[in-house]
Amino acid sequence: xPINKTLPIFAPKATKQPMDNNMPNLRMMVRAALFTVLVxxxxxxxxxxxxxxxxxxxxxxxxxxxxxxxxxAPVSVGMYLLLGAIGLPVFAGGTGGLQAFYGPTxxxxxxxxxxxxxxxxxxxxxxxxxxxxxxxxxxxxxxFTLGIAGLMFKLxxxxxxxxxxxxxxxxxxxxxxxxLAAAVAHWARPNLLLPNxxx
Length: 199
Description:
This protein is an all-alpha fold. It has helices at 18-44, 57-68, 72-85, 99-102, 106-123, 129-155, 159-166, 171-193, and strands spanning 46-47, 54-55.
């Protein structure tokens, strides 16, 4: 009696499409661009109180560091600085151009870039209050250190005068921004970014 032999049928192995591999990077590029826009919007929300206005740009820089992580937070803030450097009116007061970096508040702009790096590296998108606190404090120190140095250099101020003009009035506002940024990040990480927060 003949024996029926059936040949095994092998289904073709699914291959991952290149587009699938690029999706995490594309997603992070979109998020980075969104934060660039938010930093620009924050620059237009300002309260002039002297040589250094109170703006919301630094709040969104902090939030970018907390949510985007390395390297996308520096990419986002770097794009903001680049847009301003080429002359687009994206800085506080609708200013732009390389001259903004040489003005009294140029140190704060450079501080934004340094802060985004420090916050991103320290927090690494972990949902940790301690890491967020350390990153935000280090980022704020970077912003105000470079900002005060710029005031001293451009306006020929003493350290005491520069601290009075460029730090003391901003302490309560900066602490509020730090607390709000940490709170938003702790809500957004599990609710908006997971499970795709690690590209």
